[in-house]
């Protein structure tokens, strides 16, 4: 699978024809997604053991960093750093002005792998909602189940919409062609995250989740669709 990229004007003068490349990501993967993908490789290692190993590795790296060690892995290299200025040689560390932080760089194996990647140039589409993952907190599942009258969480890009416009919002479209249901209660509304109450009136069946958002002065409605269908038992 190629890395998708598009070109934008590099404005350095009135007659410049130079372009700069921008990567169009296919979405975002969480640790939960990575564990799912690892389990699907059929290694014979249980998902629980994978999760425990990932937890242990993460903890060891963090503990090493806060104790002043640099950590080099195939994926990334980590170093502890400090931010802020000291007024003179005797100025003590002040948490209000100074803080420690972790700096990261790609590891050797990752740099080699990225050097082997191939690209595919695309024409960038106009901005539109891009829902990438749905977490159903009622069933603790991802991209699979809708639990009526429970909390749902949708992540992605360009998700924030105008709640005063009835044509915008989160819509659940039944696969059997029945009536579309709009989500009425939303507690978190940002471009990258929506938290909402799944409507209690949903009938059993398969649903497509859409985010509809208005753009331009004429409020052109653009729709983003979650790539997975969701089931109500």
What is the highest CATH level, the class of the largest domain?
A: Few Secondary Structures
SSE order, one letter for each helix or strand = EEHHEEEHEEEEEEEEEEE
| Widest β-sheet, arrangement of strands | 8-7-9-13-12
Number of helices: 3
CATH architecture of the largest domain: Irregular
- How many independent structural domains? 2
CATH topology of the largest domain: HU Protein, Chain A
Gap between N and C termini: 35 Å
Output the CATH homologous superfamily of the largest domain. IHF-like DNA-binding proteins
Q: Which spans have pLDDT < 50 for at least 5 consecutive residues?
A: none
Based on CA atoms alone, the radius of gyration comes out at 23 Å
Tell me the structural class: alpha+beta
Query: Per the principal axes of the C-alpha atoms, what is the gross shape?
Result: globular
What does the average pLDDT come to?
A: 93
Strand content: 35-45%
Fraction of residues in helix: 10-25%
Q: How would a textbook summarize the main sheet?
A: 5 strands, antiparallel
Query: How many strand units?
Result: 16
Provide key terms for this protein.
16 strands, 16% helix, single chain, 5-stranded antiparallel sheet, 233 residues, globular, Coagulation Factor XIII, Chain A, domain 1, HU Protein, Chain A, 2 domains, alpha+beta
What does it look like?
This protein is α+β, with helices and mostly antiparallel strands and 233 residues long. The chain folds into 2 domains: 3-121, HU Protein, Chain A (Irregular); 130-232, Coagulation Factor XIII, Chain A, domain 1. 16% of the residues lie in helices and 37% in strands. The protein has helices spanning 31-39, 47-66, 108-115, and strands at 3-9, 19-23, 71-72, 76-83, 99-106, 119-121, 130-136, 141-142, 151-157, 169-174, 181-182, 186-189, 193-197, 205-215, 220-225, 230-232. The protein has a 5-stranded antiparallel beta sheet, with no helix packed on it. Strands 10, 11, 14, 15 and 16 form a 5-stranded antiparallel beta sheet that branches. The protein has a 3-stranded mixed beta sheet with strand order 2-1-6, with no helix packed on it. The longest helix is centred in the first third of the chain and has 20 residues, at 47-66. The chain starts with a strand and ends with a strand. The relative contact order is 0.13.
């Amino acid at each position: 699978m190629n890395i998708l990229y598009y070109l934008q004007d590099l404005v350095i003068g009135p007659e410049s024809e130079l372009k700069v490349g921008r990567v169009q990501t296919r979405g975002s993967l969480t640790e939960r997604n990575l564990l799912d993908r690892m389990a699907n490789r059929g290694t014979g290692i249980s998902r629980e053991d994978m999760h425990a190993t990932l937890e242990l590795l993460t903890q060891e790296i963090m503990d090493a960093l806060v104790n002043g060690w640099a950590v080099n892995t195939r994926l990334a290299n980590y170093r502890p750093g400090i931010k802020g200025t000291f007024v003179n040689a005797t100025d003590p560390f002040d948490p209000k002005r100074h803080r420690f932080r972790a700096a990261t760089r790609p590891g050797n194996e990752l740099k080699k792998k990225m050097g082997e990647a191939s690209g595919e140039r695309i024409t960038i589409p106009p901005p539109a909602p891009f829902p990438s993952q749905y977490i159903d907190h009622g069933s603790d599942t991802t991209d699979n189940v809708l639990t009526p009258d429970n909390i749902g969480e949708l992540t992605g890009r360009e998700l924030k919409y105008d709640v005063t416009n009835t044509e915008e919002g989160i819509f659940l479209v039944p696969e059997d062609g029945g009536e579309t249901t709009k989500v009425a209660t939303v507690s978190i509304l940002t471009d990258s995250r929506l938290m909402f109450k799944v409507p209690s009136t949903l009938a059993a069946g398969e649903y497509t989740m859409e985010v509809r958002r208005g753009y331009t002065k004429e409020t052109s409605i653009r729709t983003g669709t979650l790539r997975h269908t969701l089931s109500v038992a």
